[in-house]
Design brief:
The chain is of the alpha+beta class. It has helices spanning 36-48, 124-135, 143-148, 218-223, 252-272, 333-363, 370-395, 444-450; strands at residues 17-19, 24-26, 33-34, 72-77, 83-87, 102-107, 116-117, 154-183, 187-211, 233-234, 244-246, 280-309, 312-319, 325-326, 414-431. The protein is 25% helix and 30% strand. The structure holds zinc ion (2 copies).
């Protein structure tokens, strides 16, 4: 006995035993059978998966040269505490965050000099136009909002960003499932085959941005992404003329966690594209190591528009390079219910009319039943819910980005391990609803009660399938970390 290794059931976690009759490892608790080779391979994969190692070089070269800070002043907002930097030509007067007056606090000194800047491409007029387009076609936006809201000042603001460049080498293990369905006279069967899928490879990232200002809502900034780095320039203070710049108050170290999160999610999603032929694929373990992780500091252009309406604050932001505009909008509740009722009535009446027509064509008579009317109401409800949800969705354009797909280096995905290991199969068996038997009539309720809900004494062999005896219905594979 060289190998005294104990294996746990991958379905329920119980201890496995060798079953000499089938020459496989078998779980005494849930009867699932395993090939020894699959258990060994899975064990190997979970042991060698490793942990993430995501380190970055945060040393920034940015030193201000002689004279570069001349004429640049810091302005502070007494209302919200926001601080911005502007040059002599800007003469900042309003706080871009809250619209209150700002006062000069003195000469700007130090902090870090940005490495890069993407200069503004779109002007104030473009921002105004984008905002009125932003209101168009949104059926639930209160009509008076566009005319009553008052944008005091639209401000062009350079937002501080930390940009993360790296090559990621990653190992991702996915749990993948294949499902097969069939039925016989009495039962429906679902066979679920579980696989452990291992992917190893590399993927490069260019300048994944993380917002370095606490004043700027992260969700708003991630919503105006992506910025296009084809226009990125070495920073020069001349680019600030006419605009103000926010000072970073979240340092590079503190922004790493967010960058790592987006890189990891992107790796999982890009590697997943190579996992095909399954009904579901979920990442179970991901280990990412970074090579040449470098952080730089940049200013990216943004038009910020604040407005108050009905004593509520609304913020809109437009990407100063691409023109993408975002900002959540208020909802007109009476319009919501108007559309809701309209689609509800339309859907329900439509469904009733269809039933009447069907009755006339099939039987030559109007056959409208109570379940039929209830069904029509449900259809109306679903339809109105679906349509109004879509309308509501138009009003909400701000949200965090899960991944960093836009910053993946083109053609940098290189896979070196593609291994799919079959683990086990389970068959779930559920009694068929009696209504679907051949004699569909009003009398079949009496026969339904005669049938026990539990499985019959004799196991039913599915045609052309590997029968898994004793797989209990309702049992699902246990979640693993
Ligand atoms: Zn088990
Ligand atoms: Zn303010």
């Amino acid at each position: 006995m060289a190998d005294m290794q104990e294996y746990k059931c991958l379905s329920c976690g119980g201890g496995l035993e060798f079953n000499s009759a089938v020459q496989k490892m078998k779980c005494p608790f849930c009867d699932t059978e395993f090939e020894m080779s699959a258990l060994k391979a899975y064990d190997e994969e979970t042991k060698t998966a490793g942990a993430s190692d995501m380190k970055w070089d945060v040393q920034s070269s940015g030193e201000w040269g002689a004279g570069e800070l001349d004429g640049m002043s810091v302005y502070g907002c007494q209302s919200c505490g926001g601080e911005i930097v502007g040059d002599a030509t800007t003469a900042a007067t309003k706080c871009p965050y809250c619209d209150n007056p700002v006062v000069m606090k003195g000469q700007f000194s130090g902090a870090l000099k940005p490495d890069y800047v993407i200069p503004f491409k779109l002007d104030k007029k473009a921002a105004e136009n984008a905002l009125s387009n932003h209101f168009k076609g949104k059926k639930l936006l209160p009509r008076v909002f566009s005319s009553q809201h008052h944008i005091e000042e639209i401000q062009g603001l350079y937002v501080p960003f930390w940009l993360f460049d790296t090559d990621a080498d990653a190992t991702v293990r996915y749990k993948a499932l294949k499902k097969k369905k069939w039925s016989d006279d009495k039962f429906n069967y679902v066979e679920t085959s579980s696989y452990s899928v291992l992917r190893q490879g590399t993927l490069g990232f260019t300048k994944v941005p993380v917002d370095g200002s606490t004043k700027m809502p992260d969700a708003l900034m991630e919503s105006v992404e992506p910025y296009d780095y084809k226009d990125v320039k070495e920073f020069q203070s001349a680019y600030l003329a006419g605009y103000v710049a926010d000072k970073y108050d979240v340092d590079a170290e503190a922004s790493i966690a967010r960058a790592n999160e987006r890189v990891t999610k992107s790796v999982e999603s890009s590697f997943k594209k190579t996992v095909t032929g399954y009904d579901s694929v979920t990442p179970e373990h991901t280990a990412v190591s970074l090579k040449g992780g470098k952080v730089s500091y940049a200013l990216l252009p943004l038009w910020l528009l604040n407005t108050n309406w009905n004593s509520e604050k609304f913020v809109f932001a437009m990407n100063g390079q691409t023109g993408k505009i975002v900002g959540n909008l208020p909802m007109d509740k009476s319009a919501f219910w108007k559309y809701f009722m309209m689609w509800f009535c339309g859907g329900a009446v439509g469904a009733v009319v269809l039933q009447i027509l069907y009755g006339l064509i099939a039987n030559g008579s109007v056959s409208l039943t109570v379940p039929g009317i209830v069904g029509a109401a449900v259809i109306g409800l679903l339809l109105s819910f679906f349509v109004t949800s879509g309308m509501k969705g138009q009003l909400k354009t701000v949200g965090m980005q899960a991944r960093a797909d836009s910053y993946e280096k083109a053609n940098s995905l290189k896979m070196r391990t593609n291994r799919d290991t079959f683990l086990f199969t389970k068959v779930e068996k559920t009694p068929k609803p009696q209504a679907s038997t051949a004699s569909a009539s009003a009398t079949d309720t009496s026969t339904a009660t005669a049938k026990p809900a539990t499985k019959p004494a004799t196991p039913v062999k599915p045609p052309a399938q590997v029968a898994k005896p004793g797989a209990r219905p309702g049992q699902t594979p246990s979640q693993k970390k």
